[in-house]
Backbone:
């Protein structure tokens, strides 16, 4: 705790805001979306406690009482989302930034972050990540032993991804594998185990989850490949180069989409009729990456990630709607 005391005592609000911004809130959805979708597979609901809310109407005078009762019914889902997103996701970002502190100073996309602008000591970043990891594991124990084990594995992957001597981030291929396992498997299992035993998990769903996650991860490495390459961090994009990295992301996306279409045509989780209506989204997802491959304009990479990821998310959400009986044909 000594590594945090001085700055926290002098500027507590400034410190809190800097940590929150540096935790990468915009990236929490990468972890919470697979968590949420798998929770839907397990619970059969599109929103936590929706059936309970329908059976327990409230009036203005009892809002607080009803809210307390609602949270009593759904607290595991919401606490799990906080653990997976802000705590584990944020802790992972901070831990990685500790080891990349000097490298990120040269990266315009990251040099504007609060800890960089304020020239904060790297140990402050390390201490903040440690606090988030510990808090996430403590809260995970309140949910279930299984959720705690999954959370512990996520922490372990965060450590080997960023820190020497493992430093999987700098070993092109292992960085991809780490993220495919972390986001595609563990975050997905974390959501499912909230509402059902892990033994009931729809294991074939891991195919689109793993390879879809891998597609997006490769694109994120393209965003920083110039600065990672200058610092000799051999991410998958640095190792392959922009063109081949874009091609690799399309191959993974193809496998993910073939998996989604095959599951639907076999009436697994969602109906074959739905596939006949959503398959054009599978084609549209490729267009931003194809544009990137043709133009090789890495300055457009954030837009490519946004559009590709959004289309993937919309398509997956439509599958979930069909699963719970909202969008049925």
Residues:
């Amino acid at each position: 705790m000594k590594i945090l005391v001085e700055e926290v005592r002098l500027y507590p609000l400034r410190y809190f805001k800097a940590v929150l911004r540096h935790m990468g809130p915009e990236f929490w959805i990468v972890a919470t979306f697979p968590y949420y979708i798998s929770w839907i597979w397990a619970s059969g609901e599109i929103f936590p406690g929706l059936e309970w809310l329908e059976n327990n109407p409230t009036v203005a005078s009892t809002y607080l009482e009803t809210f307390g009762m609602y949270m009593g019914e759904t607290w595991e889902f919401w606490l799990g989302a906080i653990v997976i997103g802000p705590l584990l996701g944020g802790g992972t970002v901070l831990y990685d930034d500790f080891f990349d502190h000097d490298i990120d100073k040269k990266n315009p996309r990251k040099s504007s972050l609060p800890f960089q602008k304020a020239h904060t000591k790297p140990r402050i970043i390390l201490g903040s990540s440690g606090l988030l990891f510990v808090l996430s594991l403590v809260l995970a124990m309140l949910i279930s032993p299984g959720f705690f084990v999954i959370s512990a594995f996520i922490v372990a992957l965060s450590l080997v991804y960023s820190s020497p001597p493992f430093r999987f981030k700098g070993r092109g291929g292992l960085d991809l594998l780490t993220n495919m396992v972390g986001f595609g498997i563990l975050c997905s299992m974390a959501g499912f185990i909230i509402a059902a035993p892990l033994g009931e998990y729809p294991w074939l769903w891991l195919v689109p989850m793993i390879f879809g996650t891998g597609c997006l991860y490769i694109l994120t490495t393209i965003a920083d490949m110039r600065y990672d390459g200058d610092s000799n961090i051999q991410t998958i994009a640095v190792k392959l180069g922009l063109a081949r990295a874009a091609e690799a992301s399309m191959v993974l996306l193809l496998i993910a989409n073939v998996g989604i279409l095959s599951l639907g045509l076999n009436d697994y989780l969602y109906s074959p009729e739905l596939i006949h209506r959503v398959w054009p989204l599978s084609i549209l997802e490729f267009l931003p990456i194809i544009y990137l491959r043709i133009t090789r304009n890495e300055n457009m990479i954030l837009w490519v990630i946004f559009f590709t990821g959004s289309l993937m998310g919309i398509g997956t959400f439509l599958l979930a709607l069909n699963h719970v009986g909202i969008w049925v044909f």
Remarks:
- The chain is about 75% helix and 0% strand.
- The domain at 204-329 is CATH 1.20.120 (Four Helix Bundle (Hemerythrin (Met), subunit A)).
- Residues 1-5 have pLDDT under 50 and may be disordered.
